[in-house]
Amino acid sequence: MLLVKVFFKRYLFLGLFAGLLFISCNQVKPPEPLGPVPNDNQLRWQHMEYYAFVHFSLNTYTDQSWGFGDEDVNLFNPEKLDCRQWARICKEAGMKGIIITAKHHCGFCLWPSEYTEYSVKNAPWKNGKGDVVREMADACKEYGLKLGVYLSPWDRNHPDYGKPEYITYFRNQLKELLTNYGDIFEVWFDGANGGDGYYGGANEYRKIDRTTYYDWKPTYKMIRELQPNIVIWNDGGDRGDLRWVGTEAGYVGETNWSLLDSTGKVTNDMLRYGKEDGNAWVAGEVNTSIRPEWFYHVSEDSKVKTLPELMDIYYNSIGRNGTLLLNFPIMPNGLIHEKDEKAALDFAKAVKEVFAHNLVEKATVSATNVRGKSSRYDAYRAIDGDNETYWTLDDGVTKASLTINFGEPTAVNRFMVQEYIKLGQRVKSFSIEALVGDQWQELAQETTIGYKRILCFPTVETTKLRFNILDSKACPVISNIGVYNAPQILTSPAIVREKSGNIQIVPADPESIIYFTTNDEDPTVNSTRYSGPIPLNKGKVNIRAIAYDPSSGKSSAVASEQFDIPRKLWKILGIEDEKAAAIIDGDINTAWKHPEGTSIPADLVIDLGRMENLVGFKYHPNQELRKPGIISRYQFFVSQNNKDWKLVSEGEFSNIKNNPLWQTKTFKLQKSRYIKLRALKNTTGSNYIGYGEFDVITK
Ligand code: FUL
């Protein structure tokens, strides 16, 4: 009996104590939400982190980036189309959804729309009974992926484009897509709007005012009624739920606020960095392609992004408070190319390896401030693996440090941190330091965090890591911290051909050794070792190269470049400026522009030094995105004597504004010595014309 009493008393006492503690913890209220916060749809979308684009349309069959709108529907006949293959690859690659180009700018619909004849229903594929969007929806369901749709507002096929009637057509199509294919997680309205087109045979230029023409408000209302869980991406008109980041190269600003103003002009800087004091939650989505272009081009089979490139994209998108929308161009047969599949799966494996062991799991943590000294907000909450718990501080405290003690020297090179964004994005600046011996060393000083921030730094052996919040809009709320030791990945070397014809191979890491081949075979450590410029100044040449690190025995992915004839004999005519040599120096980063005052049309005339069998040319714009000087419409002439010129190609460099890469144009064989590239228009409507690099293609 006595024993029972003692037990009873003890447990009563302990119970009371625990109860009091529980009450006291709960008495400390959580911080109030700060400023704009994400809604449930935006939160759900942000948590997806990584999902796919697939680009497939008539362009796939015409080798174009943008169809004109008059391409023949009979071209669309993929003999092996298999959306299940696309879904399987995306699933295995760790993606959470797929956005399909249901209609690109050419106007061709991948579903049998009731409102146009320009669709799969008139294509030979499945005798006009096919529906790619349906097959995609079914495949997504089977693989547990979400489905999104890209519907281009610009329609170069439709006769009414530019008139009010087209808006009804556009809404009808949208309604079909949002009604007949189950849940849609995201709808994508591309920003390219208006310009030349077929327009039902009018073949003309149609300009629209993208801020008013589409009358987005009623359209948004309809979208939200039909798909209450959707997020809207819109680069063309009214602010959607998320934003483009101003480039298609695969990164967002290091400073990245998930905020913008709900109205008013959005500058390129705002797309890139967000707006610290914006009044609406509009987080960034990084869209990029696994190859240079969005649609499939066989010429890009050797241009699939390498593992180091994809890893950089990961750190510069998901690692900078963005989501990653990675595109697969579908081949004419209806499948994703095996090289793209391999690249995506290797990428997924490498990401998994980086984050396989969170080193904080074995560490202890302490903080300089904990809200109300409550265990509910303790530093430990940032490493407990639960995204719904967090470390936070007393109201008004905007500076604090959290120390991670590993207890023993530990090699680290990645730091991951997340804010609890349900309460708003708060942190303005932070740093991390490592205790090496008895010295604290600063590893990084950065600005925003947001949903997720990942920092990469050279491997350091440390016993303690200190995360310092240096400034915050209000008390910071940190839900998650991770520390990792990522395995080293060697970057492929760069291969360039100088004007002399010599080939240079430049390793990213000077300590690595380069091996190369010229016979189309992949190099190994038994191939020729690179020791200096290769004097290959005769004809065309294909170089493949790897970097090899002797200390780890690891090799990089294969870099491959195809070069046409050497440019040793070439002379730029009619331009006195010596700096114009930058146009043919083999380096896309050195550019030349016609001097101020030159007006369009502006010509680049080159004497190739001897007759060549020309079948095409290549133009690479200036690399400064959105700077004036990028040619968007051109004519290309050839001549045997520099007097009588023949026009052999003319048209547009589609999408060059957002994706300023090599533009390749081909034509029928021409035996010529002189070429003239005539710029008719640039992307900004000014008179500036520039060139990063120019080359020809010979037979
Ligand atoms: C761009 C388009 O013009 C490209 O063709 C592509 O669809 C890309 C995703 O968006 O602005």
From TrEMBL:
One of its GO terms (molecular function) is alpha-L-fucosidase activity. Its EC number is 3.2.1.51. It comes from the Bacteria. Keywords: Glycosidase, Hydrolase, Signal. GO terms for cellular component: lysosome. InterPro entries: FA58C, Fn3_assoc_repeat, Galactose-bd-like_sf, GH, Glyco_hydro_29, Glyco_hydro_29_N. Residues 547-699 form the F5/8 type C domain. Gene3D superfamilies: Galactose-binding domain-like, Glycosidases. One of its GO terms (biological process) is fucose metabolic process. It is an enzyme of class 3 (hydrolase). Pfam families: Alpha_L_fucos, F5_F8_type_C, Fn3_assoc. Belongs to the glycosyl hydrolase 29 family. This is alpha-L-fucosidase. It comes from Plebeiibacterium marinum.
